[in-house]
C-alpha cells in the first residue's frame, strides 16, 4: 500500500488579466477587448495605466456609447481607443508630436476604425480658434508640470463643450484646481501615486 503524501497540493491560480507592457497599450473592454497596440517612446508621452483607465471607464460605464469624444493630448490614444471600443459615436484625437500622430493613425487602421480622426496640431492653438464642433466626452491628460491643464480647461469653455459634457482630467496630484472654470462640477476624483484623476460635468450657467 502506498502511503499518501502529507504535503499540500498546489492550488491552481486564478487567471490574471494581461496588462499592457512598455511600448504598448491594451484595450480593456468593448469590441476590441484585449487588443494591444504599439506606442512610440516619445518624450512627455505617458499612457494612462491600466488600473487608472479601468477606474475611469467604470465611472463612465453608461456614458461612452454614442458620445462625441475629444482627446486633447492624445499621446498613445489609449483613452480615445477605449471609448471607441465601447461604441462612442466618433473621436477627434489631437497630438502635437508628428511621429506620435502617425502612430495613432496607424493604430486606427489596425483597428479598422473609420469614425475617428487624428489631427496633428498643438492642442492649445487648436482650442484657441473657432470650435470645430461641440463634444460631450473630453479627455485631458497633458504632460505633467507644463502648465497646460488649466489653460486647456478654460479654452474648452469657448464653444467646444455640449451642456452636461463629461470631462476627464488627469494631472500631477499637487496641481491646484481651484482655478478651473466654475461651470465644471466635480463628480469623481481619486489619487494614485503621483497623479490625480477627476471626472467633471460641464454645466454652463
What is the count of helical runs?
5
**Helical fraction:** 10-25%
Mean pLDDT: 88
How many strand elements? 9
CATH class type? Alpha Beta
The SS-based structural class is alpha/beta
Structural domain count: 1
Write the element-wise H/E pattern from the N-terminal end onward. Answer: EEHEHEHEHEHEEE
In CATH terms, the superfamily is Vaccinia Virus protein VP39
Radius of gyration, Cα only, in angstroms? 20 Å
Return the CATH architecture: 3-Layer(aba) Sandwich
Low-confidence stretches: 1-18
- Order of strands side by side in the largest beta sheet? 5-4-3-6-7-9-8
What's the shape?
A: globular
Largest β sheet strand count, sense and barrel closure: 7 strands, mixed
Share of β-strand residues:
25-35%
Cα end-to-end separation: 84 Å
The CATH topology annotation reads as Rossmann fold
Q: What features would you describe in this structure?
A:
Helices cover 22% and strands 27% of the residues. The protein is of the alpha/beta class. The protein has a single domain (24-202), classed as Rossmann fold, CATH 3.40.50.150. The strands form 2 sheets. It has a 7-stranded mixed beta sheet, with helices on both faces. β4 (90-95), α3 and β5 form a beta-alpha-beta unit. The chain is globular and about 40 Å long. The N and C termini lie far apart (84 Å). The relative contact order is 0.14. Mean pLDDT is 88; it is low at 1-18.
Question: What is the compact description of this entry?
Answer:
With 205 residues, this protein is α/β, with parallel strands linked by helices. It has helices at 50-59, 78-85, 98-110, 123-128, 149-156, and strands spanning 24-26, 36-38, 68-71, 90-95, 116-120, 135-140, 161-172, 184-192, 195-202. Helix content is 22%, strand content 27%.
Amino acid at each position: 500500500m502506498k502511503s499518501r503524501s502529507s504535503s499540500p497540493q498546489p492550488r491552481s491560480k486564478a487567471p490574471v488579466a494581461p496588462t499592457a507592457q512598455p511600448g504598448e497599450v491594451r484595450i480593456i473592454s468593448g469590441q476590441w477587448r484585449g487588443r494591444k497596440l504599439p506606442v512610440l517612446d516619445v518624450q512627455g508621452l505617458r499612457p494612462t495605466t491600466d488600473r487608472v483607465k479601468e477606474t475611469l471607464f467604470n465611472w463612465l460605464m453608461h456614458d461612452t456609447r454614442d458620445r462625441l469624444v475629444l482627446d486633447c493630448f492624445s499621446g498613445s490614444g489609449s483613452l480615445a481607443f477605449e471609448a471607441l471600443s465601447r461604441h462612442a459615436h466618433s473621436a477627434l484625437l489631437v497630438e502635437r508630436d508628428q511621429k506620435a500622430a502617425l502612430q495613432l493613425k496607424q493604430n486606427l487602421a489596425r483597428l479598422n476604425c473609420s469614425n475617428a480622426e487624428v489631427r496633428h496640431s498643438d492642442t492649445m492653438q487648436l482650442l484657441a480658434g473657432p470650435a470645430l464642433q461641440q463634444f460631450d466626452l473630453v479627455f485631458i491628460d497633458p504632460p505633467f508640470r507644463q502648465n497646460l491643464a488649466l489653460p486647456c480647461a478654460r479654452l474648452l469653455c469657448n464653444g467646444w463643450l455640449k451642456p452636461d459634457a463629461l470631462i476627464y482630467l488627469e494631472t500631477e496630484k499637487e496641481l491646484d484646481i481651484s482655478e478651473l472654470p466654475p461651470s465644471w462640477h466635480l463628480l469623481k476624483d481619486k489619487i494614485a501615486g503621483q497623479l490625480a484623476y477627476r471626472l467633471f460635468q460641464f454645466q454652463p450657467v
